[in-house]
Amino acid sequence: MLSTKENLKQIEMDTIQQEPLFTELTPEAAATVEGGAIFTYTTKNIDPGSSLNIRPTPSTKLRPIGSIQRGETFKASSSVTKGFRKLFGRAGWVAAKFTQRVLNTSAGRIILT
User: Fold this and answer.
1) Chain-centre distance for alpha carbon 19
2) What is d(CA 73, CA 59) in angstroms, rounded to the nearest whole number?
3) pTM of the full predicted structure?
């Protein structure tokens, strides 16, 4: 019988194998990602009532162009550029330190730390 830790590792590996890898994307989709794989993320360390800013570039120099609500899930690149992740399926970048990977499984949602 597998331990809880081994079970979670197996669920993670099964889910990773089902997620679209960078090499499986269309050329158009691949062009929007700065390397790495595309994974599902959620926000972390965001105060209640606050949101995560979406920036037009991987920098805080320009004004936000949108936001992601606390607890919302989104697709983004696994690679980090200047502390930011490139969003997938929408324009912009988010601060990587406020993101955490999520696995959606038949058993429910697992947040990876």
Assistant:
1) 12
2) 21
3) 0.67
Please provide residue 11's backbone torsions phi and psi, each rounded to the nearest 5 degrees: -60, -45
Looking at the structure of the chain, the number of domains it has is 1
- Domain ranges, residue 25: 4-111
Per-residue CA distances from 62 to 19, 23, 79, 92, 94 (Å): 32, 31, 21, 11, 12
pLDDT, tens digit only, all 113 positions of the chain: 555 556 556 655 555 555 544 445 554 454 444 456 788 999 999 999 999 999 999 999 999 999 999 999 999 998 899 999 999 999 999 999 999 999 877 777 778 76
CATH number of residue 57's parent domain:
2.30.30.40
